[in-house]
Amino acid sequence: MDRADLRLYLVTGDVPPGVDLVDVVVAAAAGGVTTVQLRDKVGSRDEVVRVGKRMVERLVGSGVTFVVNDDLEAARAIPGAGLHVGPDDLHPADARAALGEGAVIGWSLHDLTQLDDTSALDACDYLAVSPVWPTPTKPDTTTPWGLDGVRRLRDAVPSRLPLVAIGGITAANAASVVEAGADGVCVVSAICSSADPGAAAWTLRAQVDAAVAAA
Ligand code: 3NM
Fold first, then answer.
1. pLDDT surpasses 90 at 163
2. What is the 198 CA–ligand 1 centroid distance (Å)?
3. What is the DSSP track for 2-50?
4. What is the pTM of this model?
5. Which residues are catalytic?
6. Which of 9, 32, 150, 210 is the most buried (most CB within 10 A)?
7. Which of 135, 141, 204 has the most ligand 1 atoms within 8 A of CB, as the residue to mutate?
8. Which atom of ligand 1 is found nearest the CA of 133?
């Protein structure tokens, strides 16, 4: 996976009342989002597949990478979808075996000991520093890594693996995350809660691109 495909990674979350999440994703992609993860911890698998297919159809030609959070069967049912898993989910090597070489597979890092799992690292296309800061969007995260944690992970993770960071990232701090060694930033509320998701994505992407160019 090209590092540039992870510059601005949108994880779906709550959107304002009356707003269609698919429209938010499409606007965010037009604004510069490079990867979309469909994350729905409430809806049924059928619902995830239905929404995911609508997203993929509307993203055709955009170059955006599309992954599903933690549901292998949903990923299999959506054309071209990859899978993002955490340390308590399906093992990345099993995801790779099920989805094949062409699928994008990502893994969340909660703990340095995960780096000892070489079969997991070998199966992944990217890793996510999870979370970099505490966030009201997901109050039950593990201990935040902070910017020092991003730096430590960038040194410890095999260099072939791109690193993104999630949790508490906004346009005001996105550059600092890239300066610490991340290849890109993941956000939920900075885009999903915005009245103008396209503009929010554009602003974030400009911050990330400038930080990458300066690195
Ligand atoms: N996963 P926001 S933090 C979905 O640490 C998610 O694994 C996290 O939301 C993790 O960009 C998070 O609004 C929510 O802070 C991030």
1. yes
2. 20
3. -GGGGSEEEEP----TT--HHHHHHHHHHHT--EEEE--SSS-HHHHHH
4. 0.97
5. 39, 108, 138
6. 9
7. 135
8. 15
